[in-house]
Amino acid sequence: MGEKRNSSGRRRAWRALLLGALSGLLTGYAALTVAELVSAALRPEASPVVAVGGAAIDRTPIALKDWAIRHFGTNDKLILQLGILGVLALLAVVLGVVAARYRRVGSAGVLLFGVIGALAATSRPDSTSFTDALPSVVGALVGACLLWWLAGRLQAKPADVPGSDHPQASWDRRGFITAATAAAVASTGVGLLGRSLNGSQGENAVASRKDITLPAPASRAKPTPANAQVRVPGTSAFTTSNKDFYRVDTALVVPKVDATTWRLRIHGKGVTHPVTLSFDDLLRRPLIERTITLTCVSNEVGGPYIGNARWIGVRLADLLAESGVKPPSKGGPADQLVARSVDGMTIGTPVDDIMDGRDSMLALGMNGQPLPFTHGFPVRMLVPGLYGYVSACKWIQDIELTTFDDYDSYWVKRDWAQKAPIKTQSRIDTPKSFATPKAGTVMIAGVAWAQHRGVDKVEVRVDDGPWEDATLAAEDTRDTWRQWSYPWKATPGRHDLTVRATDRTGETQTEKRTGTVPDGASGRHSVVVTVD
User: Fold this and answer.
1) Which has more confidence, 498 or 172?
2) What's the 3-state SS for 276-320?
3) In DSSP terms, which residues pair with 276 in a beta bridge?
4) What do you get for the CA distance between the two ends of the chain, in Å?
5) 480: Cβ–Cβ under 8 A, 6 or more apart, which residues?
6) Eight-state DSSP code of residue 435
7) DSSP string, 100-139
8) H-helix or E-strand containing 494?
9) What is the CA angle 250-251-254, rounded to 5?
10) Residue 167 pLDDT greater than 80, yes or no
11) In 277, 317, 479, 503, which residue has its Cα 20 to 30 A from 363's Cα atom?
12) Least confident of 13-17, 116-120, 301-305, 467-471
C-alpha cells in the first residue's frame, strides 16, 4: 500500500513539473506576442527582444563581440536573438514550475522580467519617450495573469471519492486543457497580427525606395580599367555586389526608413546656418559618383570585411561649408563631426578629414541602385580612408559639429580609438589555406588596400625565401583596393605563402600582429598549402 502511495506521489510530482513547464512556455509565448503587437502599434524597436538584445550588444565585451563577428559573420544578430529567446524560454519554464506550487512567486517573476524589458527599452540610445516601456509592461501583465490562471488549474483541490471516507486532491484537468488551448490559439493570433502590423509599417519605406530614380551624377566616376580585375579563378570580384557586400553593425532589426519623411539636421559648433534637409533636397543637388572601398575595423588580417562599390551621393564638405563650418586647420571651433543614426548609433569623424578634399559624401546610391536597407537606406555617410566605425554612419539622421574633448561616440566609449585611418593591408584570395595544388605553376592572387594613399607595391614570399614582386592589376583610384597576382613555381611539400603591401607613402605593411582593438588589425596574411 505504501509503495502504491509513493508511486502515485511521484506521478503527481512529474505531472506538476511537466504541466508547470508547459504553463511557463505558454506564458512566455503570450507575453512576447502581446509585447510585439504593442510595439508594432508604437515603435518596433521597443520590442523587448530587440531592446534586451540591443542592451546586450552595448554591454558585450569587445573580445566576445569580435569572436561573434569572426565566427558568425552577418548572422551574429540572428544568433543573439535565438540565444535571447532560448534563455527566455528556459526562464519561462522555471517560472512555470515555480508557479505550479507558488502562484504568486511565479507571476511576480514574470512581472520582474517586464520591468527589465522596460528598463532596457527606455535606456536605449534611440528611445524616444517613456512609451517605449509599454510593450514590455503590457506583455508582462498579460503573462502574469495567464500564469496565475493556468497555475490555478494545476493546484490540487479536495475532491470526494466514492467509497472513501477521506477526500483526495485533484487538479482541474478540463479547465487546464481549455485554458492552455485558448492561450496558445489567442497568442498565435496576436503574434500574427503583430507581424502583419510590423510588416505594413515597412511597406511605406519599401514603396519610397521603389519610387526613387537616381539622377545622373554631375561628376561621374571614371570607367573602371578593364585590367583592374585579375583573371585568376578564386580572386574577389573587383566590384562587390550589393548582396555580397559585408554588413557589420549593431542593429538587431534593420531600420526601414521612409525616404519621403526622412530628414537630416546639421547643427552644432561653428554652424552659422543650421539646416534641415529632406531626401528630395539632396536629390536636387549636384551628385558625385565615386568607386570607394570600405573596410570594417573588425576585419582581422586576411578577413572578409572589406568591399568595393560605386557610390552616388552629395559632397559632405560642400554641405558643411554652406552651413558655415570651417575645419579646425582653418580656424573652425569643431574638430569632430558626430553622425547619429535612426537606431541611436553615434559615429565621430575628424572634420579635417572630411573637408581636406577627399570624396567624403552622403551616399544615396550603391552600384547604380538606391541604397539597400541593410546598407543604410535612404542615406549613409562615407569618408574614404577611414574605418567604418569612424566614418560610415548608416541610416543617418543628424549631424552635430562638436569636439573630441566634449563628446565620445559609441565605439570610443567602448575603448576604440577616436581616429582610425585604414591601415595598409593585403590578402591572399587564392590558393586558400590547406589547399593541395599540383606541382608546377600555381597562381597566387589577392587584393591589397591603402585607401586614400594607394597601393604602390605587393610582394610575395614562399617559406623563408626572398620577397618577390607580384604583378599589380591596374589601379582604379587610390580610394579602391588593388588586385595582384604572382606565378609560383610550386614544388612538392608543405609551404607557407605570405603577402605584404607597400603604400604610396613608402610604408610597408608591418609583420607585427595586433588585434582589431583599438584601431584595426595589423600583420601579414599567410596561408599554408601542401603541393602534391
Assistant:
1) 498
2) EEEHHHHHCCCCEEEEEEEECCCCCCCCCCEEEEEEEEEEHHHHH
3) 265
4) 77
5) 291, 292, 293, 308, 449, 451
6) -
7) HH-HHHHHHHHHHHHHHHHHHHHTSTT--SGGGGHHHHHH
8) strand 493-503
9) 150
10) no
11) 503
12) 13-17
